[in-house]
Write a structure and sequence with these properties.
The chain is built from six helices and ten strands. The chain has 209 residues and is an alpha/beta fold. It has a single domain, classed as DHBP synthase, CATH 3.90.870.10. Strands 1-8-2-3-7-4-6-5-9-10 form a ten-stranded mixed beta sheet, with helices on both faces. The longest helix has 14 residues. The radius of gyration is 16 Å and the shape is globular.
Length: 209
């Protein structure tokens, strides 16, 4: 697994021909430029019926990728303000800006998330929103450590260990309430939220169906 500088990591994924991996507040992410999302499916040997997540450094970067009424957008913003950045993925109606390869089975929807992790946010602030998923072969548990990722995904770019020191004040201790646990996934059904996967964050009862 090539370990590179932050600059080279950003340039590699922005060029469109490389996958990158970086830590988040849940499990490490495997990421690609949104219009090159097919690289993730190939690397993971992943079925096209499993959608990817669009991840950004700030929730304001994600609103152009979703489409809804004014009332719906207000409801989405209220949840985002309460829980993001954090281990929560919102599945929302996709705008025409979303490449269909992010969710081939249902291109009309897209999952969006903002990780609560300094390294992830620093990378995403420079790359813009990225297509992401966990780092693992399809059907296997998410990989948790750099040596594991190195062994299974030797061509994926990761941040050199020498660059981590600049982020240590922000990343220690981990901001995640349950590091290593995937994000909670909730879907907007037109009126309220449905929990598709219970993960690190538990929504208040008033938010869900």
């Amino acid at each position: 697994m090539p370990q590179v500088s932050l600059h080279d990591l950003v340039c590699g994924v922005r060029a469109g021909d490389r996958l990158i991996s970086f830590p988040t507040d849940t499990v490490p992410a495997l990421a690609a430029r949104p219009d090159r999302a097919e690289l993730i499916f190939v690397a993971k040997q992943r079925s096209l019926d499993k959608p990817l997540i669009l991840m950004a450094s700030d929730v304001t970067e994600l609103w152009n990728y979703v489409a809804g009424t004014e009332a719906e957008q207000q409801a989405w913003r209220e949840v985002a303000q309460r829980y993001l950045p954090g281990a929560l993925t919102l599945v929302l109606p996709a705008s025409d800006r979303v490449p269909p390869t992010l969710n081939p089975r249902d291109p009309a929807s897209i999952g969006v998330r903002v990780p609560n992790h300094a390294i992830a946010q620093a990378i995403l602030a420079q790359t813009g929103p990225l297509a992401t998923t966990s780092v693992n072969r399809s059907g296997d548990p998410p990989l948790q450590t750099m040596p594991e990722i190195d062994q299974q995904f030797p061509d994926v770019l990761t941040l050199a260990s020498s660059e981590y020191a600049a982020f240590l004040p922000e990343t220690a201790p981990s901001p995640s309430p349950t590091p290593g646990v995937p994000s909670t996934v909730v879907r907007w059904n037109g009126q309220t939220w449905e929990v598709l996967r219970q993960g690190a964050i538990v929504l208040e009862d008033s938010w869900i169906a």
